[in-house]
Amino acid sequence: MAVLINLFAFQVGWLACVLGGAYQLPWLGTTLAAIFVGLHVAMTRAPRRELRLILLAGVIGTVWDSFLVTMGWLHYPSGTFMVGMAPHWIIALWMLFACTLNVSLRWLKGRWWLATASGALAGPLPITLPLDLAG
Predict the structure, then answer these.
(1) Name one Pfam family in it (predicted).
(2) Are the C-beta atoms of 16 and 29 separated by less than 8 Å?
């Protein structure tokens, strides 16, 4: 049951972050992601370890997405505090993703090739949804 709840929370949080960012409501996704991350940390058996993982994912995501913005490869419509930085809702999304690593994605641990292939194939899927996110 925990796996399904974790997966559902991630999907709802992802949708709130992406749609909130696209439709000038970036606080919506960030707030919902913060609630889900807080509940996840509160319910885990090793909250300090899990929080470190979540914060590390947030830092890695911030650096990576900020690099993509700085290079001009990505442009986000809202939620950016500084020029060249990833918006807060995308950072929240990275942190929310980290919550899935030890729960709903736990089955990929130790299966590096499968994890890589899954990420390469499934990672881009949300981008191809037929939603006009540019407004």
Answers:
(1) DUF2878
(2) yes
Q: What is the C-alpha to C-alpha distance for residues 42 and 59, in angstroms, rounded to an integer? A: 21
User: In which element (H, E) is residue 46 found?
Assistant: none
pLDDT given for residue 133 in this prediction: 45
| Other C-beta atoms lying within 10 Å of the C-beta of residue 3 | 13
Tell me the CA distances in angstroms from 24 to 35, 72, 77, one per residue in order.
Answer: 20, 20, 7
The set of residues, in sequence order, having a beta carbon less than 8 Å from that of 133 and lying 6+ positions away, is: 18, 19, 22, 77
- Report which residue type is found at 112: W
Give the residue extent of every domain in the chain.
2-114
The pTM (predicted TM-score) of the whole model is 0.81
Residue range 26-84, pLDDT digits in tens: 999 999 999 999 999 999 999 999 999 999 999 999 999 999 999 988 888 888 888 88
90-100 in b/e form (b: 16+ CB < 10 A) is: bbbbbbbbbbb
